[in-house]
Description:
Layout: E1 17-22, E2 25-30, H1 41-60, E3 65-70, H2 81-86, H3 90-110, E4 115-119, E5 122-124, H4 127-133, E6 136-140, E7 144-146, H5 160-168, H6 170-179, E8 182-184, H7 185-191, E9 196-198, H8 203-215, H9 219-231, H10 237-251, H11 255-265
Parallel strand pairs: 2-3, 3-4, 4-6, 5-7, 6-9
Antiparallel strand pairs: 1-2, 7-8
Helix pairs in contact: 1-3, 4-5, 5-6, 9-10
Amino acid sequence: MSGPEHGGIEGIEPRGVRYEQLARVGHVVLDRPEASNAFDLPAARSLGAALDAVTAAAARGDIGAVLLVGAGARFCAGGDVRSFMAADDPRAYLRDLAATLEAEVRRLSELALPVVVAVHGSVAGAGLAFVLNADVVVAARSTRFTMAYPGVGLTPDCGVSYLLPRAVGQQRALDFAMTGRVLDADEAAQWGLVTRVVADETVTREAFAVSESLAGAAVSALGQAKRLIRSSWESTRAESAADEVETIASAVTSPEARERIERFVTR
């Protein structure tokens, strides 16, 4: 299975992320194992190409869920620090990289499909953004999580400072960001950063099983549930309730709901 063709942008050829499809699950693979899947600008643009392929496959009805994994020994080391410093203008390069990667990672949370991420090895810096923008996070037991930014004198990006306190609480987020604390997978689960912890050797298989199950569910309903929950942070209680009312009223007439309701009432 091959990924989509995607031309270069501003003279930089996208590379480092690929898209594949297995059954009704779209796989997004972070594929720079030699760099611990850290993101330089071409890789950030390659992520955009992969998500374009996801969107197209979803529009055709070919997939019902997305699974994101990392190739090699580590899931994602965040931003590629060497690429910043090799740039003629590190400030401009890092601004472009941070803006591009944030926009692409945010698309995961905005997809009208369930997004599952399988993490292993280590998750650092901007790698946390994939965890925070996914809907289900399956972690290998040996995975380690760290903010990493202070170690190189930098600050959070890719929405991490916005999403992390919403996932784990403000005080835990501050502790995590400032002390250099490293969380193991069980601690990350206790904090609410990951959904489930599994044996290292089964993480990809179990994450795919979750993805395949979700892909066979009521995909439109799951997508709307995801939207309602994620948008509730920016809504008042009344606004959220009104959105719920309109969404469920619209859903009941959909072919997806009619088929499942009929099956439910006649069983």
